[in-house]
Amino acid sequence: MKKKIKFIGALAIVLAIMLSLAACKSGDAEAEQNNVSSNEVKEEKEENQESNDIVTIKWVQVGSGMPANYDAWKANIDQYLEEKIGVHLDMEIVSWGNWDNRRSVMINTNEDYDIMFTNSGTYTSDVNLGAFLNISDLVQNKTPELYKFIPEDYWEASKVNGEIYAVPTYKDSSMTNYFIYDKELVESYDIDYTLLKELSDLTEPLTRIAQGENTSPFVLNTIGLDAVLSRYDQMSAGLPALGVRYDDESRTVVPVFEQEDIIRQLDILHEWYNAGIINSDAATLAELPTYRMAFVAQGWSKAAETTWGPQMGVDAVAEQWGETIVSNDTVRGSLSCISSSSENPEKALQLLELVNTDSYVRDALYYGLEGENFIYTDDNKVEKLNSDWTMAGYTQGTFFNVSQLVEDEFNQWDEVKELNANAKPSVLLGFTFDYSQVEDQLANCVEIFNRYKSEILTGTVDSQTQVPLMMEEMRAAGFDDLVQEAQSQVNHHFK
Amino acid sequence: MNRLNEIKWTTNVLFNIVFLITSLICIIPVFFVFMISVSSEQSLAEFGYRFIPKYFSGSAYVFLWNEKNMILQALFISVLVTVLGTVIGVFATTTMGYALSRRNFILKGFYTWVVFIPMIFNGGMVASYVVNVNILGLKDSIWALILPLAISPFNIIITKTFFKSTIPDSIIESAKIDGASQFSIFMRIVVPISKPVIATIALFLTFAYWNDWFQSSLYITNSDLISLQALLNNMLKNIQYIANNPTAGLSLQQYKNQMPTESVRMAIAILIVVPIACAYPFFQKYFITGLTIGAVKG
Predict the structure, then answer these.
(1) Nearest CA in chain A to B255
(2) A positions 400-439 inside 8 Å of B (CB)
(3) Which residues lie closer than 8 Å to A378 by C-beta, 6 or more apart?
(4) A213 touches chain B (CB under 8 A)
């Protein structure tokens, strides 16, 4: 008897639960319907008074994490932006280490954002995925000031299939390599660094330093001296073995490692390695030491004082190596793309225009909150109060309207601007290699290249014997198909 | 009699050597990391990593002390996530495992498949991101660090097998006869005699939570919610990213100067190792009993 009652009781409870669930469900459905209709009303409203409404633009950038005083900063900048263009800003700063994963899931799940930072590694594939909005017309019609501000070459370099999908960042977007030395050291060895223009010129002085100091003056890590390849436009394919020389008017796609000039430079590297100029563990060294006696880096000559010197902890001097080049890859180091599902692409572009033309907004993004992170001095320069600001200036917009620092005696951006203006455009500017037809061959070749690159580019092995081995392997994996496909696309694009 | 069980002298020595080597393999890296953390920068630059650094320096720990607000906040998040996650995870896993182990549970077959299939095929990063962010709205909340890791099918299968093989039906029946409800059977009969499996699951979960940085890298932007592990991982990856992205130009290299030094990174690694190393002996007690119970029965 008792059992029966229990059973009935249990049954009743189950029924009650089921009923209540059902009730919830219908309630939910109703609520949803209400929501939908209210949304519709809202949208209609928005359409009616679009010009007056304040929209929030979500901007995703890479940096070293969210700033601690983000809320205060946001309140301040929102007020200014609201007056100017009716926009509120919602920043998401993803730290560098998390960027690859986070970017990939945000793109793949079509998460809501308006502007996203991107760079050459993933730009074309994300465009092909349909993640970014084609702004070719919008940027010319709605934000002509922005369009005029950035030189034509840079827009050209941001094009995929002839359409613009990103606003390039007008900064040190051309590439110049420099030899950088410890000033005191070269002086003590009586070396006139200004006369050393090519790799071969460095052999003699570096040998002297290596013997005198009894250490390797030219420290490399697993990446090696990839600057030797920089004369070749690699078409963003991720395979440095394939390229077109940036000044080759015939635009012939060639196997880079079999070119005379590259072979010569690789021979020099091997010679250096044998002479002890390059450290013996270069092919396996993961992280470069902060102090190196001599090295090669991209930049501009004044950076010896502003960046390299402080980084090395000593006074540094720099001498240019080769010409300044602008190519797709150098421009695509920093791009701002607009989501294809953004509700306010025009406002987003207006915001980018303001960032590139209004020094106040630019400084806020670059230096942080006025009063907490920096203050303006009387002559309109900036005095940094701390280095807590974690947004990365290079992801946002141009450098040429950033206010100068108080301690800067000269404006290093003037030099950058000049380098940009005199840069030689690569013959492939504006061409994007669509490798979807040869994806397997490319992946295989990249794999093979990665196995060889550290040893070859650090001079650890003799390139005379190793490069033919590598090329043989690559040819077996379909390297010639890549050359053929790239060449036919190049011919088609520039016919 | 005693001689029968005695281990041969040679075997004994051999075993000791094997264990000595294994423990050295485990201890040396930690010791090495510690020595690097107390090396001075200058010593690192000139002589590289050494077991006994040329110049000692406590500057890494001084640096961490000066950043104590950030470090303590991160440590708090790590501990909170680990403790909360382990408690939630153990409760959910054992109750699920218990239900599946009962023969008279009608949906046993169905739920076993529900548990078993994701053990072999999982949805992958993008699918779980959609569920966690778009459906559950976990982005930038502490639950994003806890819930996705709380239940693993593998752990459920372990508990299920344990309950099935070690808890005789007669005990549960007798409790039922005494009028106990399912919940009190579980809490008062099953849990007390299942300490070994609970300790095992708790240990697995503690390690999983304590070592996790991946959830944080996907879901957390707010700097107040970053765990110590994510903080360390961020530092290392940031430095790598900057070193490997010369295309971004010199402007990116400028940020390298703000990155913490090598000894600071190693000091944080030590900071992460210590608490979990302290937790281990606590669990070990149950491990040993768990193993003996199995052996005697088998």
Answers:
(1) A392
(2) none
(3) none
(4) no
Enumerate the residues of chain B whose CB falls inside 8 A of the CB of residue A108. 126
Helix, strand, coil: what percent of chain B each, to 5? 80, 0, 20
Which position has the token pair 């095929």? B121
Residue A37 in this model has a pLDDT that exceeds 60: no
CB A114 within 8 A of CB A348: yes
Cβ atoms within 10 Å of B99's Cβ, excluding its own: 17
- In three-state secondary structure terms, A2 is helix
- Say which residues have a Cβ less than 8 Å from residue A375's Cβ, sequence separation at least 6: A382, A383, A385
| Contact yes or no for B44/B247 (Cβ under 8 A) | no
Could you give the angle at which helices B228-244 and B68-101 cross, rounded to 10 degrees? 110
pLDDT at A83 over 50: yes
Closest CA to A331 of A420, A223, A239: A420
pTM of the model: 0.77
A359-400 tens-digit pLDDT: 889 889 988 888 888 888 888 888 888 877 888 888 888 888
**Residue linked to tokens 């459905």:** A29
Give A51's Cβ-side CA count (13 Å radius): 0
Which residues sit opposite A57 in a β-bridge? A89
B249 → closest Cβ in A66, A97, A172: A172
CA distance A331 to chain B (A): 9
Q: What are phi and psi of A115, to 5 degrees?
A: -120, 135
Q: Between chain A and chain B, how many beta carbons pairs sit less than 8 Å apart?
A: 117
Question: Looking at residue B273, what DSSP letter applies?
Answer: H
**How is chain B split into domains, by residue range?**
62-293
Cβ density class A60-81: b for 16+ within 10 Å, e for less: bbbbbbbbbebeebbebbbebb
**pLDDT 10s digits, A218-260:** 988 888 888 888 889 888 788 889 999 988 889 999 999 999 8
- What is the band of A29 on the pLDDT scale with cuts at 50, 70, 90? very low
Q: Work out the burial of residue B286: count CB atoms within 10 Å of its CB; fewer than 13 is exposed, 13-18 middle, 19 or more buried.
A: middle
User: Of residues B256 and A125, which shows the higher confidence score?
Assistant: A125
Q: Which residues pair with A339 in a beta bridge?
A: A132
State both tokens at A128.
């092909």
ipTM of the complex in this document: 0.73
A424-425 vs A159-160, strand pairing mode: unpaired
Confidence of residue B245 (pLDDT cuts 50, 70, 90): low
| B154: Cβ contacts below 8 Å, ≥ 6 apart | B119
Confidence of residue B145 (pLDDT cuts 50, 70, 90): very high
Q: Residue for token digits 């990116």? A: B252
Distance CA A460, CA A462 (A): 7
Residue length of chain B: 298
pLDDT digits (tens, 9 = 90+) for B83-97: 999 999 999 999 999
Question: For helices B68-101 and B153-166, what crossing angle results, to 10°?
Answer: 50
Q: Which domains are present in chain A?
A: 55-172+334-399 (3.40.190.10), 176-330+427-493 (3.40.190.10)
How many other CB atoms are found less than 10 A from the CB of residue B90? 21
H/E stretch holding A321 reads strand A316-326
Are the CB atoms for B286 and B195 separated by under 8 Å? yes
Q: Which residues pair with A164 in a beta bridge?
A: A159
Residue identified by tokens 């919940």 is B183
List of chain A residues whose C-beta atoms are within 8 Å of the C-beta of residue B237: 95-98
pLDDT tier at A160, thresholds 50, 70, 90: confident
Helices (H), A339-390: 345-357, 359-367
Distance, CA of A251 to CA of A21 (rounded, Å):
69
CATH level 3 topology of B62-293? MetI-like fold (1.10.3720)
Q: Does A454 touch chain B (CB under 8 A)?
A: no
- Residues 6 or more apart from B49 whose CB is under 8 A from it? B32, B36, B39
CA distance B176 to chain A (A): 13
